[in-house]
Amino acid sequence: MSRAFNFSAGPATLPEPVLRQAQAEMLEFGNAGASIVELSHRGPEFIAVAQQTEADLRKLLSIPDDYAVIFTSGGATTIQALLPLNFAEAGQAADYVVTGHWGKTALKQAKPYVAANVAANGEAGGYRSIPARGEWHLSPDAAYVHITANETIHGVEFRDIPETGKVPLVGDFSSSIASEPLDIRKFGAIYAGAQKNLGPVGISVLIVDRELLERAGQPRADIFDYRSQLKAESMLNTPPSWNWYMLGLTVKWMLDEGGVAEFAARNARKAAVLYDVIDKSGGFYRNEVEAAVRSRMNVPFFLFDEALDKPFLKEAAAAGLISLKGHRALGGMRASIYNAMPEAGVQALADFMKDFQARNG
Amino acid sequence: MSRAFNFSAGPATLPEPVLRQAQAEMLEFGNAGASIVELSHRGPEFIAVAQQTEADLRKLLSIPDDYAVIFTSGGATTIQALLPLNFAEAGQAADYVVTGHWGKTALKQAKPYVAANVAANGEAGGYRSIPARGEWHLSPDAAYVHITANETIHGVEFRDIPETGKVPLVGDFSSSIASEPLDIRKFGAIYAGAQKNLGPVGISVLIVDRELLERAGQPRADIFDYRSQLKAESMLNTPPSWNWYMLGLTVKWMLDEGGVAEFAARNARKAAVLYDVIDKSGGFYRNEVEAAVRSRMNVPFFLFDEALDKPFLKEAAAAGLISLKGHRALGGMRASIYNAMPEAGVQALADFMKDFQARNG
């Protein structure tokens, strides 16, 4: 086939102009005599790429100067393990609000290092809602409060940023970073694997209040120390430079398209189109998440009859709509509609869903 | 310019056929409707890539079945921090043989977790030789003995594998893996960042005796546990899939070219050409490493007059020979001549060096 509309949850679809530029520069970057993936990370070409990427990301996300930006390898899961090592004392309390699979993962990674307290947990309700702030049991002396801003599998998203007083709020924004304007000052730190809404797989971003970096944390290897990483400008060791470059191209594309305000509008329209088809299907399609916290990025849905799952996926693929199979933890379908998914892709999926229902309902 | 001969120490030159294939597949991988960098790591396309890559790597390096292969992100430095966490008890002795900058880094990462003992150290001699095995002060109950098989900056390389009795030997092969046949059974584990001799930046490989994986190690996050990584087939979280794919293409290219025996022959010839020019230059060029342990991969050298460094680099670049500047720790020049550097590139450099001497000697 040619390029399909790819609804993969991550690694996810990239803007075609980004892929075309990467393709054009694969044999030689500019006039450098080599590809960016072959050039030293200490050389002038990559240093320029790295610096421009940070500048563009700061512009895109309106990152205040008193927040540091650290580019990391190892994915968001590694950041989840390093949060307590860097920002908590051994055995100190840290509060986790668990609203889906990824909140649970964050908790699991932290457990060896802190007294991890589940301040609120949506599991009993199948993660279909977000426990109200008033019901959270926070520890008064917690190192931080951790939330998962958008749950990629369960499709629930914080629509308001909770207040946590003097205790810094830390947010996993892996699947919703840059999807709408965000007041970063409300957080001690936010982080994201890039492979959903910032571009390529293989690199992650930590945006952290410089005050938090003054905490001593716990004994750890230098490579696990965010103070050292910042001092070395995220190049304490060889960084994933090609992935960094791709992130830079994607961020630049987002700026060129109009920035997060524009994407917030597009994303609201895209999500509305899909939820509308689901809600008006008379039960043929089903999304069980409480309407107020439905994710704008990941739309999980189920067909009324599981026997239709296979034909749905097969016919969708034939129509150029791929990667719609739901996560194995939930089954059913999932449409991930990050910034790089065009509105035309979502409309094509909506049309297909209506047509499929007409033929099978 | 067009593509130059690129002597970068890492990220380093890639085989042109690998880059061309990556370029051709950048918009669509096979018939998948999307690039491999956009496809789920759980999907059939990437699973096939991952499995083929491991099979090819096992073939290339003759990895015995009782050794596990784990693909990691975070670079060799992260592996250096995780070695003691996985394979030593807290406070247990671990022996480090330091023969250059990277041995020192390995030691630094391990120090928070083990009683790191410097069993031998080449620093006093400027890392120009490797302390003889008979002079090493090994701990009888060490968790492991760590060596750096090839020092990328200082250009010294173990030409024989030292005996360490019942204590497992662990080798950092970042800059010499796959450069010649190696008896992996002599090691408890070897590891390498891929960006020198295995292909792309952003992924590393740990090859480890499954017996070592039975050690309890120290309390650590699940993402830092190599048993968990192995169980999850190196996909405990989203792996750097594009980098993995590029590693696979590079390994396949090495197999197609004749495997490690063929590269060992080419690498011996390439190194001989350069050391010959240096040694016959009457002091115009200088390499101070003891002949018996000179690296076949990284050839550091100095011009007799530092004032000639800038003209040398400028004229070399104009002749299509790039990235020859030495590491800032040593100064001078360095030619990294990994598997992907063709013999023609080394010959061109040798010819340039002789010509430059004729004009400036």
From TrEMBL, chains A, B:
EC number: 2.6.1.52
Any single Pfam family the record assigns to this protein: Aminotran_5
Catalytic activity: O-phospho-L-serine + 2-oxoglutarate = 3-phosphooxypyruvate + L-glutamate; 4-(phosphooxy)-L-threonine + 2-oxoglutarate = (R)-3-hydroxy-2-oxo-4-phosphooxybutanoate + L-glutamate
SUPFAM superfamilies for this protein: PLP-dependent transferases
EC class (word): transferase
Annotated GO MF terms: O-phospho-L-serine:2-oxoglutarate aminotransferase activity; pyridoxal phosphate binding
Note on how the cofactor is bound: Binds 1 pyridoxal phosphate per subunit.
Highest taxon of source: Bacteria
InterPro entries: Aminotrans_V_dom, Aminotrans_V_PyrdxlP_BS, Pser_aminoTfrase, PyrdxlP-dep_Trfase, PyrdxlP-dep_Trfase_major, PyrdxlP-dep_Trfase_small
Annotated residues for binding of L-glutamate: R42
Major place of residence: cytoplasm
Swiss-Prot/TrEMBL keywords: Amino-acid biosynthesis, Aminotransferase, Cytoplasm, Pyridoxal phosphate, Pyridoxine biosynthesis, Serine biosynthesis, Transferase
Protein's cellular compartments: Cytoplasm
Gene Ontology terms: cellular component: cytoplasm
Names of the cofactor(s): pyridoxal 5'-phosphate
A single BP term in Gene Ontology: L-serine biosynthetic process
Binding of pyridoxal 5'-phosphate, residues: A76, T77, W102, T152, D172, Q195, N237, T238
UniProt cross-references to HAMAP family, sorted A to Z: SerC_aminotrans_5
Family that this chain belongs to: Belongs to the class-V pyridoxal-phosphate-dependent aminotransferase family. SerC subfamily.
General function of this protein: Catalyzes the reversible conversion of 3-phosphohydroxypyruvate to phosphoserine and of 3-hydroxy-2-oxo-4-phosphonooxybutanoate to phosphohydroxythreonine.
Description of how the protein assembles with itself and partners: Homodimer.
UniProt protein name: Phosphoserine aminotransferase
Native species: Thermomonas aquatica
